[in-house]
Amino acid sequence: MHALLDTLQQQGWTIDKPSRPWTIPVPIRTRYDWVPSQVISLLCSISRASAPDERAWLVTGADFNGQSIAAFRWNEWEHLSLGAAKADGDRAWMLEIEAFWDDHFPISTSVRGGYAFLAIERDSLNVVMGREPEFEETELVAESFIETLRMMSIRASEVSLFA
Fold this sequence. Notes:
Layout: H1 2-10, E1 14-16, H2 26-31, H3 37-44, E2 48-50, E3 56-58, H4 61-64, H5 76-87, H6 91-102, E4 104-110, E5 116-121, E6 127-131, E7 138-142, H7 145-154
Antiparallel strand pairs: 1-2, 3-4, 4-5, 5-6, 6-7
Helix pairs in contact: 1-7, 5-6
């Protein structure tokens, strides 16, 4: 997986690595205890991984720890959805949103052509994409995290999967 990050960097991505790997805060680690350890390890080994146009990036250890330079939180789209449900006063919808995000671990974000994300889905470990306005309606992107990184490295010259 690290070789795929190197490929992304060679193709213009900004990849910053901390002097020591990040750790995932306990509440996030507990909520997403089903995420493969290799995924967590890779994301915690980087502080920043952004596409050449700075409009798509991987979620990193810095994001999970609130130390990122990104304008968006690692779980920004969950917060937006919950805000909409709260504004409607719809408690059932809020619970549906929380359940969705319990089962979807965000790994990448884009603001290209609207807000979008990639996430690992709990039951299958597939990677799915969601877009605004209905973030919780997703489509399959890849059958694994590593396949997603491969796709991103192949398409890096096209900017990313979000193009």
